[in-house]
Amino acid sequence: MIALLLIALTFSTALARVPRKNPTPLDKGMVAYHNGEFLQAIEWLDQALEANPDNGIALAYKGASLRELQRLDEASSALGHAATLIDEVNTTTRAWVHSERFFTLLELGDTIQAMREIDLAINDDGRQATYWRNRGAIRSEQGDLEGAIADYDKALELKPDNAQVRAMRDETAQYLKNYNQAVAQAGTVTVTERELTEQDQMVPPQFPGGMDALREYIYKKTGWTTAKAPVSVMVDVTIDTTGRVTRAVVSKGVDKKLDKKAVDICSKLPNFAPASLNGEPIEATITIPVRFPKK
To answer: Model confidence over 46-81: pLDDT tens digits?
Structure first.
């Protein structure tokens, strides 16, 4: 089993935490974003962009707010443009923008471009363990197990006490060991990293109708729409070799009531097409955001 569990890095600034005496629309938009008031944030940020269309920070926060509201195409466009407006002096901020676009593109199903974005985030700010961890998770899902282990090792070098990354690294290493043993027992030479990357084909679990259908299914159960600001429960869902959900556990919760409802929804999901490695079904774990209307 290979677990895919991603964590977004929350970018905050002194302006977002300590309001100025006379806050600007940008200040107000940033504060609203960090308070989860995404529609209000966009209103303030639009005012900032009207005054200065080349304000990369305002456009970045607008893109991040659009992502939270699941207006993904708009978010991708805004974040992509924002990254071009932020100069070399602010590479930490630009790295966060690339990371936000990474998540947006993943939700849109564009894994190839998403990987380019997380590569850019690491290039701009390689000190963030979260970026290495997230790239490792995607590499693991794609079957580049040794590449994933290398990324997890870098994340642990930066944050040695991160038990979750260590568990993900150990799980991936064990999976690679088991795979190599199976290949060796079959009379074939154990694959190298390059051979594994080029020869193996890993496909993640597929919901009937794709990601859009999965989102629509969950929205109908929660009552959330893209016009409302959401609260999100992140649920780790394990899907067995037949495509059946066998386990649903909250990885990032909100409160007991919503956490339980999110688990109930995910536990009763229709069968997926199971994940596969080289055409053979395998068990896999994916993380599903379950969004509820913010009260």
So the answer is: 999 999 999 999 999 999 999 999 999 999 999 999
Q: Which two tokens stand for residue 235?
A: 């649920």
pLDDT for residue 199 = 55
| Residue 187 neighbours by CB under 8 Å, 6+ apart | none
> What pLDDT, in 10s, does the model give residues 237-261?
888 999 999 999 998 888 899 999 9
State the Cα–Cα distance between residues 143 and 280, nearest whole angstrom: 13
At residue 110, the pLDDT reads 84
In whole angstroms, how far apart are CA 134 and each of 72, 79, 148, 160, 186?
19, 18, 9, 16, 33
Count how many residues are written for the chain: 295
State the pLDDT at residue 225.
66
Write down the residue that tokens 């970026």 correspond to: 131
Task: Provide the edge-to-edge strand list for the sheet that holds 202-203.
Answer: 202-203, 275-277, 280-282
Token pair for 280: 């053979």
Dihedral (Cα; 204, 205, 210, 216), 10-degree rounding: -120
